[in-house]
Amino acid sequence: MKIQEKHTIQTGWQLKQKFVCLTCGKRYRYDKGLSRHIRFECGKDPQFKCTYCPYEAKRKEHLKTHIINKHPGLISQSEFFTLKSASKVLKHLYH
Predict the structure, then answer these.
(1) What average pLDDT does the chain have?
(2) How remote is the C-alpha of 32 from its chain's centroid?
(3) What is the mean pLDDT of residues 57-85?
(4) Of 59, 61, 73, 81, which is the most exposed, with the fewest CB atoms less than 10 Å away?
């Protein structure tokens, strides 16, 4: 019987992700991503809850994206456009 060693092969994308969370090991390409992860996500409970299903998110923009994608028929048009434009603004602020 042969015993195989497991080797991790890093892809080009993984090699570019140089910023690593010391708590959970999650990797980020930019220091801003790691800072945001540490501030809002790592080791923290989700604080944003969907009013339509059991989904919970650690970041508000993730909840907004969830509602737009999963519950478009349950929100009014004005709410939809408010959420959609807010998500776009947040997306551009972080990227």
Answers:
(1) 76
(2) 13
(3) 79
(4) 73
